[in-house]
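pls design
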């Protein structure tokens, strides 16, 4: 069932056991799992069935620190959430991404890749993915990895008819959850704002905010403030350890043979380091994306190489007229260390139309991140040279440690952390089952629970964790 507003929903007399807040990939996946187990669930969606300027306005906020996207641009507030404009790049976080990196504080998850593996077949169906091939080591340090470009499933479109026909799932549009009301042990209701006014409360047995990797923190921070700690009793980590995947063009390369690597239509090839290489260089995970350059770019690159790297130019000259195929741009995206000071807080001056403080994001890249970028490119270049696969030129700004360029991609629109998973309530907000520490009936869905970010795009892992949480809740409720 899909209702246009909360009045229509109330008129239908539907009694939910679970209240999910938000209809993005996380919310819809959890709802479908519960619905298929016969559990009545309501999905409250702040936006309507389509994009609107009025709805996006609630997402405005401020970023303090490094340059970042406008907060109302980097996400979408309507049915299907940000899946309405995601690019569809998919990969599940690696087993080593869940493990602690002893050289970086606060890394490591209480669960491992084995905990989400059982859900990957379902994830493939949900995201319309083919099977991933295993990684191919090209040296002890570097692996040729696969990211699959899925058809970028729009959750609101793909599952629209299924949701509309479902008798166990009620999606309520234009219904903004402004606050979860809690007494320090459980949530007792969700306060609503609909059609520009207060719309009372809704009650269920369980509550699962799935409002995205920025908004989950905002909702819980505000709710906790309103109830003097009654929603997240252990709030030391709430809003903290926020992470992105910074992304920049870090150099370029001449390749002996691009066909060495099978590419998809986008002609992009991906590499990442082995865990041993990360440990040896004491860096975070990273992904190098090679994108084939147009011919004019090749000529320019050879000219640059002749001036700056004569050895490489010699190698190129040798290859010219032989099997030199092309040049490529090197984009690097990397894992940010989880740092408590990268955090979300409530604005003390700005409020949205419902009177809820707007979001303030405090975000800065650290020295470890520059080292990850530089050492990562060195590792990659050394492997390519040693294997005679090509020659890499690292951009001057990376080598010199200059400021990050401001006219590039900046980051991935991947919003992670803020309600991180940790067994210790002082170090995390949710436990290994995504339940808020100290609360009997409050769970969190989405990448805000990520304890670390790995190097790959998050939505495949978000969807797997959502299947796992849906499964967990359905067993708990049915039992
Ligand atoms: C331009 C772009 C490209 C991207 N490309 C990729 C990619 O290639 N691969 C990848 O893995 N990821 C990509 N992403 C990230 C991906 O879109 C997100 O990881 C994913 O959508 C997160 O899903 P979610 O369900 O956790 O949150 P969202 O998709 O953000 O959904 C949250 C939902 O909650 C609703 N909501 C928010 N607050 C409230 C409230 N208080 N009450 C009620 N409802 C509320 C919102 O309206 C929204 O529908 C991209 C993102 C962007 C912006």
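designed seq:
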């Amino acid at each position: 069932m899909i209702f246009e507003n909360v009045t229509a929903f109330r008129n239908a007399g539907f009694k939910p056991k679970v209240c999910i807040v938000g209809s993005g990939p996380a919310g819809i996946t959890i709802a479908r799992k519960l619905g298929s187990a016969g559990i009545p669930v309501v999905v409250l969606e702040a936006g309507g069935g389509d994009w609107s300027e009025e709805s996006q306005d609630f997402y405005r906020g401020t970023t303090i620190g490094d340059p970042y996207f406008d907060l109302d641009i980097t996400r979408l507030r309507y049915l299907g959430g940000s899946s309405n404009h995601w690019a569809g790049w998919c990969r599940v976080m690696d087993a080593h991404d869940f493990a602690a990196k002893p050289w970086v504080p606060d890394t490591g998850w209480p669960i491992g890749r084995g905990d989400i593996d059982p859900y990957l077949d379902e994830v493939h169906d949900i995201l319309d993915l083919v099977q991933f091939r295993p990684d191919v080591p090209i040296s002890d340090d570097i692996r040729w990895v696969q990211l699959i470009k899925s058809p970028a499933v729009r959750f609101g479109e793909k599952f629209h008819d299924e949701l509309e026909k479902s008798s166990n799932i009620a999606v309520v549009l234009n219904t903004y959850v402004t606050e979860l009301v809690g007494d320090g042990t459980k949530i007792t209701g969700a306060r609503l704002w609909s059609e520009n006014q207060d719309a009372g409360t809704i009650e269920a047995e369980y509550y699962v905010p799935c409002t995205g990797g920025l908004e989950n923190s905002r909702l819980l921070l505000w709710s906790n403030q309103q109830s003097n700690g009654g929603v997240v009793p252990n709030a030391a980590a709430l809003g903290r350890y926020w992470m992105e995947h910074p992304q920049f063009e870090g150099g370029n390369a001449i390749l002996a043979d691009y066909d060495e690597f099978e590419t998809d239509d986008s002609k992009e090839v991906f590499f990442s380091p082995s865990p041993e290489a990360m440990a040896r260089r004491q860096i975070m995970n990273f992904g190098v994306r090679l994108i084939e350059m147009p011919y004019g770019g090749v000529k320019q690159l050879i000219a640059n190489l002749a001036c700056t790297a004569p050895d490489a130019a010699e190698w190129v000259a040798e290859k010219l007229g032989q099997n030199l195929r092309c040049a490529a741009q090197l984009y690097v995206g990397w894992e940010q260390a989880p740092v408590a000071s990268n955090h979300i807080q409530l604005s003390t001056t700005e409020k949205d139309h419902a009177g809820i403080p707007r979001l303030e994001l405090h975000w800065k890249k650290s020295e470890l991140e520059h080292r990850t970028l530089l050492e990562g490119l060195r590792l990659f270049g050394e492997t390519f040279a040693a294997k005679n696969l090509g020659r890499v030129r690292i951009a001057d700004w990376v080598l010199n440690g200059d400021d990050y360029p401001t006219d590039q991609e900046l980051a991935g629109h991947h919003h992670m952390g803020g309600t991180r998973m940790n067994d210790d309530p002082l170090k995390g907000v949710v436990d290994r089952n995504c339940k808020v520490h100290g609360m009997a009936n409050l769970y969190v869905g989405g990448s805000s629970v990520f304890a670390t970010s790995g190097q790959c795009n998050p939505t495949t892992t978000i969807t797997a964790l959502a299947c796992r949480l849906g499964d967990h809740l359905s067993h708990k409720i049915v039992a």
